[in-house]
């Protein structure tokens, strides 16, 4: 399972697109998607700490993945790599 956190804000078109894409991808991948408003103290601290310049900010398993318009292609590649990684570790073929 991959945990995804999306830093969002109200009236953010790219945030809405990111949430819709993640909802769609959650049907194909084992994802847990949470959102956090960037205007909250916790959201502001996370954005500052991660160097996120503007929403949406996307974090995969707690690691900064992207901010701004979310690339479906880039995200799918990252998800595939993360899902294959445990299998490689089990077979001893970790690069």
Write the layout of secondary structure elements.
Elements: E1 2-8, H1 13-28, E2 31-37, H2 41-50, E3 57-60, E4 63-67, H3 72-91
Parallel strand pairs: 1-2
Antiparallel strand pairs: 1-3, 3-4
Question: How would you characterize this protein structure?
Answer:
The chain has 95 residues and is of the alpha+beta class. The chain has a single domain (2-91), classed as 3-Layer(aba) Sandwich (Glutaredoxin), CATH 3.40.30.10. Helix content is 48%, strand content 24%. It contains three helices and four strands, in the order βαβαββα. α1 links the parallel β1 and β2 (31-37). It starts with a strand and ends with a helix.
Keywords:
alpha+beta; Glutaredoxin; 3 helices; 95 residues
What is the structure about, briefly put?
The protein has helices at residues 13-28, 41-50, 72-91; strands spanning 2-8, 31-37, 57-60, 63-67. It is of the alpha+beta class.
């Amino acid at each position: 399972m991959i945990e995804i956190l999306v830093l969002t804000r109200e009236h953010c078109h790219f945030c809405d697109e990111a949430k819709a894409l993640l909802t769609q991808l959650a049907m194909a991948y084992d994802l847990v998607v949470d959102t956090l408003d960037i205007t909250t103290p916790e959201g502001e601290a996370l954005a500052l700490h991660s160097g996120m310049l503007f929403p949406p900010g996307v974090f995969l398993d707690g690691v900064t993945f992207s901010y701004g318009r979310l690339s479906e292609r880039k995200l799918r590649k990252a998800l595939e790599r993360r899902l294959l990684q445990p299998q490689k570790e089990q077979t001893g073929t970790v690069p």
